[in-house]
From TrEMBL:
It comes from Nocardia acididurans. It comes from the Bacteria. Signal peptide: none annotated. InterPro entries: PsdUridine_synth_cat_dom_sf (IPR020103), PsdUridine_synth_N (IPR002501), PUA-like_sf (IPR015947), PUA_sf (IPR036974), tRNA_psdUridine_synth_fam2_C (IPR015225), tRNA_psdUridine_synth_TruB (IPR014780), TruB_C (IPR032819). Residues 252-307 form the tRNA pseudouridine synthase II TruB subfamily 2 C-terminal domain. HAMAP family: TruB_bact. Residues 34-190 form the Pseudouridine synthase II N-terminal domain. This is tRNA pseudouridine synthase B.
Length: 311
């Protein structure tokens, strides 16, 4: 029988912000993190495609209960869009279905296409997305050869900036590669932006590189690669990016409470509301997160007790 190893974090845990490498699935990252932190209590707050790199937010131990309450409604990316070629998956991992010379496309035409894809738009998700169709993931149906038709849905692209243009002549094809930065609402597919920009310009397009730089308030500054985390584990250094108190302060508005109020929350009682909208953190005088609250009518009730009496 294998020896049970003691977790390297306490029962409260916190958030681990990983700078994911390309080729890893989000599930792979969770599995590796479980081994590093010696606990099974790890979950992620939204996936990142295997091709993509960058910010992946993981909850550890009790902080896994916090994941569903995090306000991760905005995300930021850097990406490379190739104009002149369409693929089945709208990214570089899919089979090429059409190649069209794109060297003639002007910067003004690109700017016009980008402007049409900025703001509140209707977007048809990529066919190989994780959206469920009759209980099954769209990508599973597509890989099985089914013709998957997804409905357009509203998303917000608050920023879509072209940073650089590179004209690529392979001798047999002329492409235009665009380095872009995008800030958008959760649920926006950058692959679909690449596809739609190419369609608007009449030459097709797909994504060749994608890096997520921010999820909600969590950025690459909070993140470490799995290689860095492995080295830290071997050196017996702390692995969490934010303990549960830091996570609460970073992710939510806060309200300071006294010892009696803390005791009330731990025992299922509610507090008087103070007019804060959405979920917020109740912090004691020592700066410890006691609970996450949400107000309704004359009550500010706990939606999660962060620090029970026994912790």
């Amino acid at each position: 029988m294998s020896e049970k190893r003691t977790p390297v974090v306490d029962a409260l845990g916190g958030l681990l912000i990983v700078d994911k490498d390309g080729g890893w699935t989000s599930h792979d990252v969770v599995a590796k993190s479980r081994r590093l932190l010696r606990t099974k209590k790890i979950g992620h707050a939204g996936t990142l495609d295997p091709m993509a790199t960058g910010v992946l937010v993981l909850g550890v131990e009790r902080a896994t209960k916090m994941l569903g309450l995090l306000t991760l409604t905005t995300k930021a990316y850097t990406a490379t869009i190739r104009l002149g070629q369409s693929t089945v998956t709208d990214d570089a991992e899919g089979e090429v279905v059409a190649t069209t010379a794109a060297g003639h496309v002007t910067d003004a035409e690109i700017a016009s296409g980008v402007a049409e894809l900025t703001g509140d738009i209707q977007q048809v998700p990529a066919t190989v997305s994780a959206i469920k169709v009759n209980g099954e993931r769209a990508y599973a149906r597509a890989r099985a050869g089914e013709d998957v038709q997804l409905a357009a849905r509203p998303v917000t692209v608050s920023r879509f900036d072209v940073l650089a243009r590179r004209d690529v002549d392979t001798g047999t094809a002329q492409f235009v590669d665009l380095e872009v930065e995008v800030e958008c609402s959760s649920g926006t597919y950058i692959r679909a932006l690449a596809r739609d920009l190419g369609e608007k310009l009449g030459v097709g397009g797909h994504l060749t590189a994608l890096r997520r730089t921010r999820v909600g308030p969590f950025t690459l500054e909070h993140a470490r690669t799995l290689e860095q985390l492995t080295a830290a584990a071997e050196a017996e250094e702390p692995l969490l990016s934010l303990d549960i108190d830091q996570a609460a302060r970073t992710a939510f508005p806060t309200r300071e409470i006294d010892d009696k109020q803390a005791d009330d929350l731990r025992n299922g009682r509610w507090l008087e509301p103070v007019g804060v909208k959405g979920v917020y953190a109740a912090m004691d005088s020592a700066g410890r997160a006691i609970a996450l609250l949400q107000e309704s009518g004359k009550r500010a009730s706990s939606v999660m007790v962060v620090r029970p009496s026994n912790l």
